[in-house]
Amino acid sequence: MLLQVQDIHTYYGLSHILFGVSLEVDRGECVCLVGRNGAGKTTTFKSIMGLAAPRTGAVLWKGQPIQGNPPFAIARSGIGFVPEERAIFPDLTVWENLDVAHKLGTDGRSPWTVERVYEIFPRLEERKNQMGGTLSGGEQQMLTIARTLMGNPDLLLLDEPSEGLAPLIVDAIGELVLQLKQEDVTILLAEQNLHFSLAVSERAYVIDDGRIQFSGTTAELEAHPEIIQKYLAV
Amino acid sequence: MQTLRTIPAWTWGLLAAVALAGLSFVLGEFQLILASQMLIAGLFAMSLNIIMGFGGMVHFGHAAFYGLGAYTVAILAKNYNIPLWVALPLAPVVSAALGAVVGWFCVRRVRLYFSILTLAFGQILYVIVLSVAADFTGGDNGIHGIPVPEIISSARNYYLFTLLIFTLCFVALFIITKAPFVLTLRAIRENAERAQFIGVDVRRHQLTTFIIGSFFAGIAGGLMAILNRFVGPDMLFWTTSSEPILGSLMGGMFSLTGPAVGAALLLGLHLFISQYTEFWPTVLGILTIIVVLAAPTGLVGLTDDLPRAARSAE
Amino acid sequence: MTILSIEHLNKAFGGLQATNDVSLSLEQGELSAIIGPNGAGKSTLFNLITGYHRPDSGRVIFNGRDLIGLPPHEIVRLGIGRSFQRSNIFPRLTVFENVQTAVLSHYQQSGHLWRGTSRFGKLNEQVERILHSIGLWDKRARLGGKLALGDQKRLEMGLALALEPKLLLLDEPTAGMSSEETASTVALVKQISDEFKVTLLFTEHDMAVVFGIAQTIHVLYYGGIVASGKPQEIADNPEVQKIYLGEKDAKSRFRG
Amino acid sequence: MDTFVIQLLGGLSKGMILFVLASGLSLIFGVMRVINFAHGSLYMLGAFLAATVGAQFLGMGPSGFFLMLLLVPLIVALVGIVMETTLFRRIYTKEHLLQLLLTYGLTLLLSDVVRMIWGGEYRTLRQPDFLRGGFEIVGRKFPIYGLFVLIIGPLLALGLWYLLNRTRWGRIIRAAVANPDMVSALGINVRLVMTGVFALGCFLAGLGGALVAGQSAVGLGMDVNIIVEAFAVVVVGGLGSFGGALLGALLIGIILSFGILVWPGGAQLLPFAAMALVLIARPWGLLGRPER
């Protein structure tokens, strides 16, 4: 297993957010973590990433415990995080945003370069000298993903890439995720948008109230409409 | 059974005032002067804390308004022979008037900028007193020999006089802290943006706070001028602001009495330590750093008691 | 009768046209929603109406009065209340004090220097009424910042109600809520519109909430209004379906 | 005309010292969101170090002087690193009130420590031979040292600009200004960046002090005077803006220089008058951005 999250409990100050979340991602997989707003998806990602360290439980990365490590060390060990709030650097140009994020992969190689990223995101090349803050929502989302790729991660944590985007852009982002899968990027995806998640991933975890309520293949999830109704319907 | 908590606050206040007055018959002359200084330091700290504790505006130039009060008394009484009974009441008026001018600029900016501006404007007033207006203020030498009326010239009488003024100021400030003004001020401290959207004119409210704080600082300064019969430009210097700041920090910034007690204790410590070393600022600096780092979740923890205290006072 | 009319409103931040020639009007007592993807300019529009930002051009007329250039606190006093997407309260004031501050402000008593807050009998009764109607009376002595998220948003609405607004702007009242909390918030919104007779304008992501309670829906897309109309019209509007809802989705949501 | 030129040069030279100081203040504020009140104390520390320890190097000629200009700021930067790692690091996430009070406490402490070590008397640093004396311009004499400062300033500004805008380290700093958490999640050790930025800021404060030691008397109280002027600079120029620090510093320097001619007694007040004017017209400073 590439990533194993084992029974983590995470708090923000006094509030208990995650109640024993466990999940696994293997190399080459695309796994989704679906749930409503506030179900604990982002907190799970932040726990993995060290931005909100779990109080108990373990996060194993390539078999080694990484919980409690600082975020930069976790990133250097090969996990790339794409936050939902699209935290691009608004006063840096598109190119600078990408350059800041550049680092070698854990194998010392760098398959992702600015040129490769521009190939996949031609829009970004067109705007390479524009300040990040002046991009549209969809472009900012692309830049966030592209920026994380520049770190040559072994695993991509994608937090709600479709959130708040118009359907046309969501489709484009979906295409992009499929394309990344073909590039052998391992992906853990957090989503509210079930259709989007099912279209791109093989396995799914359903999270609600900080607990994993279901895990299985996407086909199994689709075969359980009552679960979808209970935890995911709006 | 009546517990301590249900006894109304004013009863405690009355007891404290009587006890403090009673002290005047016990203490010697030196202690009475020290006690007067402590009361003045307490009043100065309370005047700052209205702005810094309740208002959340970190004010680094408060000494200027304290000094202005002192100079007002000194200049009027010494240079123009105006009776003290007229000069002293004018001290807070002058401080408040200049507080209005300086405050008007300072409240235009929040947080860090506010602090920067108060320090800068405080230093301007210091420079004015030190050099620009040296003809009136005596420049570096200050003003010596302020005439004091017979009735308050003894240490005991002056202590009682100071206690009377202190008590009046305390009662006034106590009333203000229970009134909508300070409730709204606390709301602004918590969330100025939201306060706007419930219809509060935030800047005007903060400016009023600044003026009130300057007013009471002026009284403290005036009292100090009479006690020492001397004023010097150091009273306006920014390091003079540091003792009420640390006093408030030590005593608890979200209460009325805390800063007064903290500042009074700090003054005692100052005098005590000065017997051994001339490096009091070092002690003050280290103490400030310790208090800041020791405050566990910032000073937030201390506020949790406030609502309870407020309820018990109702 | 039209209570609010927005005419050709424009606002750009840097190169980004956040509000693009927006015009819309609200009738007295109407319950309307603004929908649109994140970044479509919903919050900016609220900020423009309430004077937090100043538009580059255009007019906002409220009860016959042009609001442009007025500071937020004066706009509030004219009768526009607002609640925020992230709960935006006074964390270290008790629940009671939170609402009390707003009520005192509404009755122009914020600057009162000598009368104790406990001695404003009539106004405190008003605070009590509001706390009852938002269901927080039992939690009145708790610090606002220590409430659960759902309760904070109720308190948030309580602050807005304390101003007895003629128009109330709610920014995503159910964002981040569980389904139960959402249901009770929807009930609260309905109750408010009945009980307090205010005109309501809200933004929302949750289409069930939008189609469940709104009488009129405005669709905002890249800063501009794409469509305005009754829920059925919006659901059937081909352009809206294309850019936002997705054809199938919209119909099933509307039926649901 | 000749008076005008001389005063202008003098003002620009004064402005350059202010710029060195204000840019450090602004840089630290930009990344850490902390206003370091102790910045002026570090400047004073630099000046005292230059006037005492640094004086030993002057025997070595020009190279000794430049060595001193490097070493003194380095020592000050070291003090800064100690302060950052032991104290500042604990308060970045706390309320601004505590941050201000901490740096305030440090100011009290540092100025007293300087008094403890060097006492209250005024000192001067003998100017190195190659910078002593004056040269003639528009028929008047202008000190060579002033010209030297006038040259160092723009070079430093250019260097800092290059560092921030044309190097990867600079890009990381600017990214950290926007969102330190995200920078960390990209695999960059933000703590190290912060310590580095803090050290650079302190280096600049020390450099300002070392430069000024060759120009005017070094004594207690210079910390407060300079920090208040530096505050006027950042208020006029806009806090966190590099260009603002430069513009503000030059403006304040020139105002001070001409103020002496117009109103000798009150020249010190003029920068604050400028500050007040800016506050009325543009509360966020000439090149700053309104807070939102």
How would you describe the overall organization of this protein?
The complex is a heterotetramer of chains A (234), B (314), C (256) and D (292). Helix content of chain A is 35%, strand content 26%. Chain A has 234 residues and is an alpha/beta fold. In chain A, strand 7 (155-159), helix 7 (167-182) and strand 8 (186-191) form a beta-alpha-beta unit. The mean pLDDT of chain A is 88. Helix content of chain B is 74%, strand content 3%. Chain B has helices spanning 9-23, 29-54, 62-79, 84-106, 111-132, 134-137, 155-178, 180-190, 192-196, 202-228, 242-251, 257-274, 280-294, 300-303, 305-313, and strands spanning 143-144, 230-231, 296-299. Chain B has a two-stranded antiparallel ribbon. Chain C is α/β, with parallel strands linked by helices and 256 residues long. Among the domains of chain C are: 1-26 and 49-71, no CATH class; 215-248, no CATH class. In chain C, a hairpin with a 2-residue loop joins strand 9 and strand 10. In chain C, helix 3 crosses helix 4 (121-133) and helix 3 (95-106) packs parallel to helix 5 (149-161). Chains in contact: A-C, A-D, B-C, B-D. The A-D interface holds A 49, 51, 70-72, 75-76, 81, 83, 87, 89-92, 96-97, 99-101, 103, 147-148, 151 and D 168, 171-172, 174-175, 177-179, 181-191.
